[in-house]
Every structure is written in structure tokens, then in C-alpha cells.
Amino acid sequence: MDLTTTKTVLITGAGKRLGQAMAVALAQDGYDVAIHYQSSREGAEHTAEAVRAAGTRAVLVQVDLSNEGETRELIAKATEALGGQL
Question: Which residues of the chain have pLDDT under 50?
Fold first, then answer.
């Protein structure tokens, strides 16, 4: 895999509305997507299905952004889930 051409993105709140739309649009442009959600797991799974249907990778990352400790872990969790790329 050529890391210089791999496109990845982390979208917070990607289980609903605008976050979901951005995740799908970026997937259609070739981005692998880390999908953050707090409580909208069903919506996040729907987003992941749409991202995968666009032919890119999708990973789910659940954290509570109102919790400082969890917020600090968000990027590490997303990076690990995408195989070290973000």
C-alpha cells in the first residue's frame, strides 16, 4: 500500500445528519472513514454500510466527547482501527 496516496478522515458525529452526509461524500471521493459516534450506533452502522458501498473502508469509534479522557483517545482509537493511518 502506498501511504502517500491513501486518503483517510475522521468524522465526528457521523451517525447522523451532516456528519453522515460528509462521511458518505468523502467515501465517494475515495477516503477511508473513521466514523465517530457517541450513542447513535445504529446510525453509525448505516453510515459505515454506505461508506463501504462506495468502495472504501469504514471503522466505528465510540467515545463520549464530553469526557476529556475519552476525547484524548479518539484519534488513537481511530488511527489504530484504520491500521495506523489517519
Answer: 1
